[in-house]
Structures
1.
Amino acid sequence: MLHRIQPKIQNRLQLVQRSFKTAFARGILLFVVAGCAVPQISSAPSTSSPATGTSSEPATATKENNQTGGSNQTIAQAPASGAAQRYRQTVVLDGLEHPWSMAWLPDGAMLVTERPGRLRIVRNDVLDPTPIAGVPPVFASGQGGLMEVSLHPQFAQNRFVYLTYSHGNASANQTRVARGVLEGQTLRDVQTIFEAAPQKSSTQHFGSRIQWLPDGTMLVSIGDGGNPPVSLNGDLIRRQAQNLQSRLGKIVRLNDDGSIPADNPFASNANADPAIWSYGHRNIQGLTLNPATGQVWATEHGARGGDELNQVQAGNNYGWPLVTYSREYSGGEISSERSRPGLIDPKTVWQSGIAPSGLTFYTGDRLSGWKGDLFAGGLVGQAIQRIDLDASGNVVGQQTIAINQRVRDVRQGPDGLLYVLTDESNGQMIRIEPVAP
């Protein structure tokens, strides 16, 4: 009996020691401690032996990251709260080449994009071998290619499908939005309805997610153009995120035909692009709406560390690259400031970096222990972060759901389950399902 109790006592003593050291460090240090350790709660998925887990397992260790200035910002990652949720991961299909996004049709079939430039259809968990025709040519290089797929809110009536993709070549390229009408296995009447200006010269930071708002307009995220030494007009291109005459490093708001709403926050500003909805972003690849509150949420890649979760509002400046927890890939500081009056702080920072992509609120009943939680995919993290928010929209806890592959997208399906796309040359679609107690 003693040999079972003794390790537990030692573990408790270690946790007390860590807590004391953390409290002491917080009193004397004003720098950011990298990382946050949270447990893996499921193993790699398998079609023959699905991984299982329980979402209520507590974190075994945390590190708090100190900050100077700013409010409503969670850097320390506490364990996620809420009811226990037993689950398993089931591989629905594989054979996808770097899948990027998914959207469900009214009949239950699913559209999936592959970054090299194919739009695929999945029916009854089976991938149709023939891609959908009519997709515009894409510049598939580096981070570029065919990215988001999204359906018009009235798709059943108009059959409109929206795609984001990179267009151009290595020396001059941009993110575009196209709209087409889905008829059987073909997109017809495909038109480019929006493009990010100015053009850029790198194969980095295209964005780009689409999120529809209740008024029928859509938000589209656009990356800042790339890392140093990528430049534009003699200056680092990432500084375009602060330029209101540029669409780089922004979220734009559009009507469903690509025109610009008259009530956009900068529509009456002669020195700003009227399409801009928010700015100061680096590279948003997670964008979603909380249907209970109407709040817009985004996950944003940092450079070396400093990935962010933001609650985004019209007209606000989110700071990049004036304030950031990121560092240069070479190791130096991008900015000595972490916060500044007039700039909006992130709700949480993943200082060790998860490379966030894909974001969704879970509103279903099948995984009832997770209802109301926010789910953020991670490429480098190879996991999904389940995020608890309080009534004010502040992060109160997180927990890691290990996928053990690069997570490109995570969505709630019409069946009330969670679906995951993995960014691999043999990419998978994984379904997260409840397990009976």
2.
Amino acid sequence: MHLRYSYRICPTVGQRQALSRTFGCARVVYNDALTLRKAAWKADRSRIPTGVLAKSVITDAKKTDARSWLGSVSVDALQSSIRDLDTAYRNFFDSKSGKRAGRPVGLPVFKSRKDSRQSLRFSRNGFRMRGNGKLNLARIGDVRVKWSRALPADPSSVTIVLDSSGRYFASFVVDIEPDHLPELDTEVGIDLGLTAYAVMSDGSVIDDPRFLRKAERKLKAAQRALSRKAKGSRNRAKARRKVARAHARVADTRMDWLHKQTTRLIRETQAVYLEDLNVRGLARTRLGKSVHDAGWSTFRRLLTEKAARYGRHVGIIGRYEPTSQVCSTCGVLDGPKPLGIRTWACGPCGTSHDRDLNAARNILAAGRADRLNACGGPVGPGVAIPRRARPVETGTHRNAGRTGRKPRAADAAGIPVP
């Protein structure tokens, strides 16, 4: 499996100038190649081969007066720009045909020198690791790297990134074998929220750190200082970098916290079950700032990636499962409840439930049912002996009150059984 390791690098003043020149050349090659492909497609719906495209925008362009400065940078970085354009088009067509899962991918767009993030990629021919720990980049030189940990294998490529706060990073891609951890008998369902970041089915709670909320005062002060500076001035550029550094500090702190929490969960549990939350929809509500601050999508992505690496299981239950409406003890569907109701009592069995804890237990039961595919088995929390599923009480199921329909059976956690 492929992993990416990112390290902070410290280029000298001359190396920064060389990197800036390489960023610009790679961007120009990318835009020129995109222009030719758009023109060819508009003319006769044809696709220019990658080799012909590289010869046109790199080899032949160097011989012209308008693009002669392309010869001052590494050709490997320029060729990587062509490969990146191929990848962008491939992702677009795979997204249109359904081969690529996730959000729809649009057509490639032109890059701008005003983008807050600049990047370029070197293949094996464009970099090497020195014995003194420095990273040698073609036409740039030996760059000092802050090694926070050793690379597990020889990298196949390195991407140099300049972020909006002016920091440089080297991102290495390595190919390693999965390192499976010893199997455990613990499974947990997690209900993500804003009051508490995560409530586990075993009763443990992860508090919401609210990194953005805690840094809002400093961010507002930095943003006000930026708004007072004249546009185009050097003071405005300094103020902009100060705002970018403040946001980068919040993002880095959040990512570090998410890595630690997901690593702990993967090490301590064999299977983790989550709910498929509509994060994009929630981000458009009045709770949008808190939803973005929580980073639920990153939390789920990190869990999934680490589970694949360490031999764990991450299950995602359906978005429309009534986890907050079903009693985790008797399985009765009690109906929807406003967000202000944090505790409620089940009418038939009289059990008092914490809203989030009850939802976490139902997520665990639904995840086990999907994974084991054993309807009526011991998938409910606290159920140790398998037993036959019993019918739901009249009036507690969605279809119970409809004429001509009989209520379906449910397992111990109230999950309908077909």
3.
Amino acid sequence: MRIAIQSVTPDTGHAEICGWVHEVRDLGGLAFFLIRDRTGIIQVTIPKKKASEAVLASAKKVSRESVVRISGTIKGMEKAPGGREMVPDTFEIINLAETPLPLDVSEKVSAELDTRLDARFLDVRRPRVAAVFQIRSAAMYAVSTFFHREGFISITTPKVVAAATEGGTELFPIAYFDKEAFLNQSPQLYKQMMMAGGFEKVCEIGPIFRAEEHNTTKHLNEATSIDIEVSYADHYEVMEILENLIVKTYEYVKRSCSDQLANLECTDFVVPKTPFTRLPYRDAIEIAQKKSSESIRFGDDISAAAEHAIGDEMGSHYFITDWPTEIRPYYAMPYEDDPTICKAFDLMHPRMELSSGAQRIHQYDLLVRQIQKKGLNPDSFEFYLRPFRYGMPPHAGWGLGADRLIMTMLGLSNVREAVLFPRDMHRLVP
């Protein structure tokens, strides 16, 4: 029976392994093969004078990244990966890989990101790359577990919709029989509708689509969003949920992914501490004015350069709160004593924005007025507005970018490194 490579020890005695040929070294009387599966690497040593003809024939024929099945005796070997080696009795080539390879899986020869993404199936065989997605899997497990323990109901909302979430033109139109439809920008409208349904606490992890013509290291046109909506909560309460989620996710990754973090050389992996600083928008603008060379005024959106200047000043995760109502979505609740400011927030990593949220407007008349102020037609949002006429509780929520969360957590240079098959302005395959 096949044994995972990480589980193979000298105490195992005799074992059978399956995996890819990671490296080959021929030293005359000895041939060394590093065999890799998803759990690790083991050295297979062939003493040519003692090995069978069948083993020698396969060893001579096999190419790097071929799939093999090998059985043999396990011995302790201090200099070998994992402190053990296998001396084979059998050496079967299951599938012979073509040469040359599109990229070097052993990472002795570096490859550009585009080359890696073009051959992503091969790229993810690299232990460092595989570690990113093993950590991402662990992080998503931690997120789901957190929601379950906090009493959230997991929902699935439509990705093909009739109207834009926030208006505007950043939409992917699609032909939907005899109608025009769009790929959804966000589950925002639907998770708010579920507050009228009495669910009180909902969450969703799913794709969102934005037709933004950005070609940067932090933007994608298809992304994964982690969303919540909570009834009878204000913006402060959902900010607390968000910062606790971030901390619990970091803690779980640190606890369960030590090998993967070591593979990525994340030796300074630090779990953030709560509470995160609440920085009013007005104060954030003042920091940007002092620390950034860009001209920025109250009422402007915060540019990437301003984000970096503020992030350098803050040094860790923080919230920007109390945004001008004019530059936030129509559903953000204005303050009663100053309607020019709303109960909206962004969660920031020093490098970039991770999440956006707010307490929402739950009064029908006010919501209609805010939609009109944005130059939108309330008739286009009738399906969304209708629940507000039949008993909508106060509520708040946020959306968190899963891809950016992993990117910043692991210090990756490009968000595409945190996504298996990224979609941007130029990439539609594989």
4.
Amino acid sequence: MSEDKNPYPGENNTGHFWDDEQDLRELDNRPPRWYMQAMLVGIVAIVIYSIYYPSIPWFGDSYKGTAGWTQITEMKQSVAELEAYREKKFAATEQAIADSSLEDIVRDDELKTYAIKTAKVLFGDNCAACHGAGGQGNAGFPVLADDDWLYGGSLAKINQSISNGRRGNMPARMLGITDEQASELATFLIETGKGAQGNPNSASKALYLSKGCIGCHGPTLAGNQILGAANLSDSIYRFKAEDQHASVVRTILHGVGQGNNPQTQDGVMPAFGHSKVIDAVQLKKLVVYVHQLGGGDPVKPAAKKAKAAKVKAPVAAKAAKTLKDPKYTPIVAKSDAFADVIAAAEANYKTNLAQNLAWRDTGKMIKEAKKSKDVALAKKANAQAVNALRQASVALTASPRF
């Protein structure tokens, strides 16, 4: 097209054409009336909105609006409404938990299920930072999802630990142990903990017996739950590290909880029962939740007595259905032979993965067990996979998800 001739005179176009045939061109028409009216209404709405709600920066702060509305106020109102609803709906169940002993709560499937479901958030808020979202532990903090307990896995002991807290203590350099002796002793303990796969130097046991270790950890290295002394014979380490030998040496030389030693290991748990963080009913729920994570001591059935009316938790029907769900049913090993145990462990772990509820260490233990043919390690892996399924059957999910 020529620069000075418009092929569409009188069309009110701008003279801009976007293709060679000049079919696509830019017009200069007024917007539709409805569009202009909508824009004017929007301008008025913006003015009204800016006056009614917080909006414009105002001398270092902001204009608060005539409504006095804030997101925080709305959030607090919503939380208050939710708490009022929960208090009304679950008042009878909460009272039943308050009036029941820990043993009775665990014996009652409905109360136990309610306690576990409602305690999951409590555990996440107060315990997961140290012990992991699924009780799998973190560096320097015990695993709660196994049956290895420093102070005992009964309901009473767990309640005591959560209520009163714990403070680990182990003297440094017992009976003047030297650096070389500490390294030799650490090797002995680590190899002994490997069971049949280990190769401990029997001569090193003299160090264990002569340097005072036997006083707390016992002649078989099995520990003492009264003292909170760890079991040294099972390769389960509270102070887990990439270099486990160096970590054990550090504990021997610098102890645990020795405040005057900057290299000492720390072993402190706060006393939740003496704080205002959780109340008495919430504490009971946490005890039940931790107990069922995988290693709690079994609760004996109640003595037979006349049946009394019991409060039915609103989650009972759904919980019963969940407990019977075949996707949470573990495979049982046919025997204690390695082949049967590792097959069950792999099958249960595969089920874990299919439901997105596997624990991180399970797969690692299975691989190590297959490599070393360690039956004890295979059993531990299988137990952890079964525990994940059991937790999921009552809590609908086993955290953390990987």
